[in-house]
What does this fold into?
Amino acid sequence: MEYETIAAVDLGSNSFRLQVGRVVENQIYPLDSVKETVRLASGLTPEKMLDEPSQTRGLEALRRFGERLRGLGEGAVRAVATNTLRVAKNAREFLVLGEAALGFPIEVIAGREEARLIYIGAVHSLPLAPHKRLVVDIGGGSTEFIIGRKSDPMLTESLYMGCVSYTLRYFSDGRVDKRRMREAQVAAAKEIELIAHDYLQLGWKEAVGSSGTARAIADLLELNDLNPGGVTGITREGLEKLVTLLVKAGSIHAFNAPGMRPDRLPVLPGGLAILCAVFEELGIERMNYADGALRLGVLYDLLGRFHQHDMRDTTVEQFMRRYQVEKGQAERVRKTALAILEQLAGPESDEQEQQFLSWAAVLHEIGISVAHNGYHKHGAYILTFADMPGFSNKDQARLATLVLGHRGKLEKLAALPPGDPGWRLIFSLRLAVLLHRTRDDRELPAYAVNDAADGFLLELPARWLEDNPWTAAALNEEIMVWRRVGMQLKIKTLGAARGH
It folds into this structure.
């Protein structure tokens, strides 16, 4: 389905942002942009728990966003959460409340997925250029580094350092001096050293800063004539002068330079220290600024899904190649699993369920690349922890559950509640795999599947079962597998039922 109006919600570590856009062909024109300074990262305790005040600020912001988004279809809104909600131990509890306040699902995305979306947003706000660009985005809890050419990211990384976390660590009382600033810069430099070699080796022609930290610093440098020769953007010389001014002021409270936005002042020292380290470690002399960042990237990624350019499809294809999936068997299982789901759910089955079942079907054997014994467990592990562009953490967990459940005991899926739609997908995939055990293109029997009380009903020709005793034995085992988790699989042949 396509939408005329779409929206992105960015639950950042420093601020929550909402951007609403109007879709005209392949372009997005902004309608509304709202920012709420939440400082979620400042509410993260040493035990990695979000405290009550930060949760309250976040939920209040999401309620306000929810009012603006009321009336939009679920597919027209994508909400993503970043570093603080990646690391908070009580993130799940907060997200349940957050989704209720917002009225839409919230996805926690991995660092590299955040980097990919940031790059998409940045390049859509910059002039077209044939050369490689380095995009650096300093957020509240993490900093993303991306090298890309045109609209394609080539190298992505996310480092656990941000303007909020560094300000809290090195400038918690608001005081700024040379020693503290140097300590913060050295700490950031050590993090950047881990990726510097690969980035310098790939190289770039233009460096670009995105998001609030880069914009605030660029404004300060330009409005206070700190750049040499009236150069725009961010320069190494300008950064050094800004550090000198901040140290001279002695604290963020005494810093009163023209152009300093009040909402950015409390986290300026941490962001400035990180940016200085970026310039030093990557040998940057000048950096431009891009208005677009994560939320614009989310909007264009969402638009791509409407136009059948879903990054998740590309990722699945790449995984099939990387893990040397046998394409013939994957396609046989995919078609049959979808046909089974259609019988269970009818022609109006949920499009998202079809997508996930299709992806799980073509990836169900990727674990064989690790070891054949327990390959479904290896596959689930890969899908849980690998970087999968386009997929949120929740998406990956859902995909991993399907792959884990496609064979073997079902007790390992105890966390899946009774009646959850996931059971229907698991049944569809398990039956498809079982029917294609011969791994060839022989014709399948005329089967029928239906939902039944506490389980499923499978109808098969008795003659076919007699002619395929290996599969018949496997189906009998399948009856017991489902029974052990309190569900029924009934197999009906010529009006007789096997299994209870």
Notes: Residues 310-443 form a domain with the Hypothetical protein af1432 fold (CATH 1.10.3210.10). The mean pLDDT is 92.
